[in-house]
Amino acid sequence: MLERRLYQVCFRGADPGAAMTALLAYRNDDGGFGYGLEPDKRTAASQPLDVEVAFSVMELLGPPDTAVVISACDFLASIGPGVGCLTADALEGPRAPHWGEFALGASLNPTAGLAASLLSLEVDHPWREAATAFCLERLELGLPDDAHAFAEVLRLLDALPESRWPCATEQLVQAVENLSLFLPLPVAGEYGLTPLHLAPSPDSRWLELFASEAVERHLDALAGAQLTDGGWPIAWESCGPAALQEWRGIETLRALRTLEAYGRLSA
Fold first, then answer.
1. Terminus of the chain with fewer CB atoms < 10 Å: N or C?
2. SS (H, E, C) 143-189
């Protein structure tokens, strides 16, 4: 339902209120979000990863409900200045094979993305600056070599003035060449982030990190991956049939928004 409502907002000019109502169904009394908002773990308990998804949705919907964002920050602050993707509650229930104990430790993924969203939403909370400081301190030690964490770092750098960057653009270009779980060129059926995840629109400042030919090949591959039912597939093992269908909705909306941004959707 959430992606269906978001589709109406993004492509049909619908009022965002119904989409926000759908999002709030995932909210918990502690201010966080759970219930499998990120579908690959099914716990109802609030998870930092689910809060990140919620913030990303709110960025799409326009001016946020500040009280909702503040209470989510209170939940994050209860964990620490840096958070992991998951809390231990997530490991007690069904989850996809790629989620394990490594996801519990404080890391750039998702802390950097959460801080970036708060800067974009223009909601101030003590946790926002604490999380930003945590990330910048980590980055003083070097850029991450995992594509997911790298994508989160790019989001944070994009939201900060360059005077606060702990690295130069040249270092980002070099880091891209050695990322794990990254596909510089399309490989059918193989999982990995692509230049389109890191630069989802031609207005992205990070488009300069990639050769234009590589971006065009990924756009061709993305357009060609649509299945006969109209949706897009996923390239990883999900948590089960329900999670698979939820992810397909998420990926379909992402594909459509990316293709539209790059002028690849016909009227």
1. C
2. CCCEHHHHHHHHHHHHHCCHHHCCCCHHHHHHHHCCCECECCCCCCC
Q: Residue 88 to residues 62, 100, 109, 225: CA-CA distances in angstroms? A: 32, 10, 16, 36
Q: Alpha-carbon distance 134 to 141, whole Å?
A: 12
Contacts of 13 (CB under 8 A, 6+ apart): none
What Å distances lie between residue 7 and 34, 64, 220, CA to CA? Answer: 22, 18, 22
Average pLDDT, integer, range 178-205:
97
Task: Tell me which residue of 36, 75, 76 sits closest to 238, measured CA to CA.
Answer: 36
Q: Where are the domains of the chain?
A: 1-175, 183-267
How far from the centroid of its chain's Cα atoms is residue 43's Cα? 19
Task: Say how far apart CA 67 and CA 73 lie, in whole Å.
Answer: 10
Is residue 198 exposed (0-12), middle (13-18) or buried (19+ Cβ within 10 Å)? buried
Q: Say what the pTM is.
A: 0.97
Q: How many residues does the chain have?
A: 267
Distance CA 171, CA 231 (A): 37
Residue 76, classified by CB atoms within 10 Å of its CB into exposed (0-12), middle (13-18) or buried (19+), is buried
